[in-house]
Design brief:
CATH architecture of the largest domain: 3-Layer(bba) Sandwich
InterPro entries: FAD-bd, FAD/NAD-bd_sf, RIFMO-like
Structural class: alpha+beta
Radius of gyration: 23 Å
Low-confidence stretches: none
GO molecular function: FAD binding; oxidoreductase activity, acting on paired donors, with incorporation or reduction of molecular oxygen, NAD(P)H as one donor, and incorporation of one atom of oxygen
CATH topology of the largest domain: FAD/NAD(P)-binding domain
Protein name: Pentachlorophenol monooxygenase
Mean pLDDT: 94
Organism: Streptomyces monashensis
CATH superfamily of the largest domain: FAD/NAD(P)-binding domain
Number of helices: 10
Cofactor: FAD
Helix content: 25-40%
Strand order of the largest sheet: 6-5-15-16-17-14-18
Length: 457
């Protein structure tokens, strides 16, 4: 076995898809008997839509959800007014997706799971991992029943309470984002239109929201409760809460599908790699749900790690390439934690800051900018979409390969080449990584092959 992935959430499933299309033998291990049943992480940011486009699931994700509605504020049983949830970000040729999608997490995971199976990947349910170990030749996970399983690498995508992170002794520093208890639930509600995200605030700072979940018949209930309150996650408790905060009656909450409580916090693991074990998703960073950064940052962990594991396991790249996973993603996660905390506290607006299109790796050791006076897109930046000779760039990028823009023919073996880059890129030649970022840029294609050789690819 090449890779064991612990956790069948969005992170583990996305990584499984990326490895499967690279011919890497991977097994996803999930403690539960089935996929996660709740709506929890429902926002799919534009950058993650680009990732899903590459992984071959964007059409299904779009069909599973829909756009965010405006927020309707209520006071004393009356509508006060509506406001957009997000600042508008203009779409252009380079960024075709600029609006977040609302997709219930359980639906996102169903789509990813179906794609993983389509590619020949596997998930083993009912497998509770309690620890991990490693030696010079590989790593192993230990199960609750006393058995173990080995692979060349292990990826811990087992959530904020990661058993693997704890077994490795990796610390996770964090802070409370809000002292109040929160709860979230998927409910059926009558007497409330589905055209708005309905919000019912009180003067003491507590609030209940009821958001129609796109692609389902449910509403997601979110609540910020008084400090010291113990959330009641039963149907009766949720009926009482809705009746206390809204104009609806208890009987208007007709069903409870799923519920959970939490206290918002921001936390970052001290390390994302310990030898042959790597941490991804909530196992590596925990966000406030405000701003929709957690699931998206996690999926992009998987997208960064997938091509690097594939290069090491199938293309002969040195194991040290995996060090750049921690280098790139830990810095990115730290920035996203600051952002999500800022959104939670009302210091940052949802919009251009939260769509994640401006994230990049200019400071990475993998990034080489060799042009004397770069203009436009630089090495380390996200590679924008566009069209070259009638070919859409995102179509050219799709798949587990590198792409060279601005070099006629195939000057680098195994790399797809297009004769030019869009004008928006500026002058130069651009070598685009499998995860859609420019790894190398130069005035000509000279040096692109040497760059890949240095990576061992």
């Amino acid at each position: 076995m090449d890779v064991l992935i612990v956790g069948a959430g969005p992170t583990g499933l996305a990584l499984g898809i990326d490895l499967a299309r690279r011919g890497v033998e991977a097994l996803v291990l999930e403690r539960a008997a089935g996929l996660f049943p709740g709506s929890r992480g429902k926002g799919i940011q534009p950058r993650t839509q680009e990732v899903f486009d590459d992984l071959g699931v964007l059409a299904a994700i779009r069909a599973a959800g829909g756009p965010y509605p405006d927020r309707m504020i209520w006071k004393d049983g009356e509508r006060v007014g509506a406001e957009p949830m997000f600042d508008t970000v203009a779409a252009d040729d380079g960024a075709p997706y600029t609006e977040p999608l609302m997709v219930a997490q359980w639906r996102t995971q169903e789509v990813l799971y179906a794609r993983l199976l389509e590619l020949g990947g596997r998930v083993a349910f009912g497998c509770e991992v309690t620890g991990a170990g490693q030696d010079a030749d590989g790593a192993a996970v230990e199960f609750a029943d006393g058995t173990a399983l080995r692979a060349r690498y292990v990826v811990a995508a087992d959530g904020g309470r990661s058993a693997i992170r704890r077994a490795l002794g990796v610390g996770m520093a964090g802070e409370s984002v809000d002292p109040a208890p929160f709860m979230v639930a998927d409910v059926r509600v009558r007497g409330l239109d589905r055209g708005y995200w309905h919000t019912f605030p009180k003067d003491d700072g507590t609030v209940v929201g009821l958001c129609p979940l796109a692609g389902t018949d449910d509403f997601q209930l979110q609540a910020r409760l008084p400090e010291g309150t113990a959330p009641d996650l039963s149907l009766d408790g949720i009926r009482t809460l809705v009746a206390a905060y809204t104009h609806l009656n208890r009987a208007d909450v007709t069903a409870l599908r799923w519920a959970s409580d939490f206290r918002p916090r921001a936390a970052l693991a001290d390390r994302f790699r310990v030898g042959r074990v790597l941490l991804a998703g909530d196992a590596a960073h925990v966000h406030s749900p405000a701003g929709g950064q957690g699931l998206n940052t996690s999926v992009q962990d998987a997208y960064n790690l997938g091509w690097k594991l594939g290069a090491v396991l199938r293309a002969g790249a040195p194991d040290t390439l995996l060090d750049t996973y921690e280098e790139e993603r830990r810095a990115n996660a730290a920035a996203m934690l600051d952002l999500s905390t800022g959104v939670h506290r009302g210091e940052v607006r949802r919009g251009s800051a939260t769509v994640q299109l401006d994230l990049g790796y200019r400071e990475s050791s993998l990034t080489e900018e060799t042009r004397a006076n770069p203009a436009g897109v630089r090495a380390g930046d996200r590679a924008p979409d566009g069209t070259v000779d009638g070919v859409r760039l995102f179509d050219a990028f799709r798949g587990p390969h590198w792409t060279l823009l601005g070099a006629p023919g195939s000057p680098v073996p195994g790399v797809r080449s297009l004769p030019a880059a869009p004008e928006s890129y500026g002058p130069g030649v651009f070598l685009v990584r499998p995860d859609g970022y420019v790894g190398w840029a130069g005035d000509s294609s000279d040096g692109a092959g040497a760059y890949l050789a240095k990576l061992g690819i």
